[in-house]
């Protein structure tokens, strides 16, 4: 398994992985925008044939640095194909993105939203990576489920 920076020509593979894994899907423009605007903080995992089996798509918050809100990264979406799970791929993808957010953009923290019922992802964020719940956002998702808004400080690492 190879993990590397996402390129603009990966967006089809990333979108297809997303469609197989999550109900929150995005138009191609969204993937392109991220890959082109913040090219150093999104990563993919590929198999030996170069097929994308996992990705993390991230951004730097636009309003960062203004109004006293520190510069921070935000993970929009992460997923790993079912047969490649529990191999540590998501952990590696997250760590690479966090590292790049801190070193390239001087991001002070990273945020994300996750469904309250998503045990696997919460296990990854809270248990493995050390994220904390900043707040619960009621009915954040289209089907009415609450989101946990989570954060991890990138300072003093
Ligand atoms: N149950 C409990 N804990 C889990 C689970 C699980 N099913 N999966 C991962 N973890 C935790 C464990 O602590 C694990 O460490 P361990 O294997 O040593 O016990 C740790 O996370 C690291 O696991 P990885 O192997 O790195 O995670 P994986 O590559 O399997 O990917 C992911 C995890 C991305 C959540 C995967 O299950 C997935 O694609 N799920 C569907 C899509 C999804 O829910 N994405 C997140 C949505 S929120 C967002 O995108 C911001």
From TrEMBL:
The keyword ATP-binding does not apply. This is N-alpha-acetyltransferase daf-31. The gene is daf-31. The keyword Methyltransferase does not apply. CDD domains: NAT_SF. Keywords: Acyltransferase, Transferase. Belongs to the acetyltransferase family. ARD1 subfamily. One of its GO terms (molecular function) is protein N-terminal-serine acetyltransferase activity. InterPro entries: Acyl_CoA_acyltransferase (IPR016181), Ard1-like (IPR045047), GNAT_dom (IPR000182). Residues 1-155 form the N-acetyltransferase domain. PROSITE patterns: GNAT (PS51186). GO terms for cellular component: NatA complex.
């Amino acid at each position: 398994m190879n993990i590397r920076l996402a390129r603009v020509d990966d967006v089809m593979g990333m979108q297809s992985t997303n469609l197989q894994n999550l109900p929150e899907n995005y138009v191609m423009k969204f993937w392109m925008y991220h890959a082109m605007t913040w090219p150093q903080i999104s990563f993919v995992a590929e198999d030996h044939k170069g097929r994308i089996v996992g990705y993390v798509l991230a951004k730097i918050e636009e309003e960062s640095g203004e109004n006293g809100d520190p510069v921070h990264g935000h993970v929009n979406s992460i997923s790993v194909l079912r047969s490649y799970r529990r191999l540590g791929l998501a952990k590696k993808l997250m760590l690479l993105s966090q590292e790049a957010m801190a070193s390239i953009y001087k991001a002070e923290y990273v945020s994300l939203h996750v469904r309250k019922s998503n045990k696997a992802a919460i296990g990854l964020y809270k248990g493995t990576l050390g994220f904390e719940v900043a707040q619960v956002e009621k009915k954040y998702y289209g089907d009415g489920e609450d989101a946990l808004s989570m954060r991890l400080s990138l300072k003093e690492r």
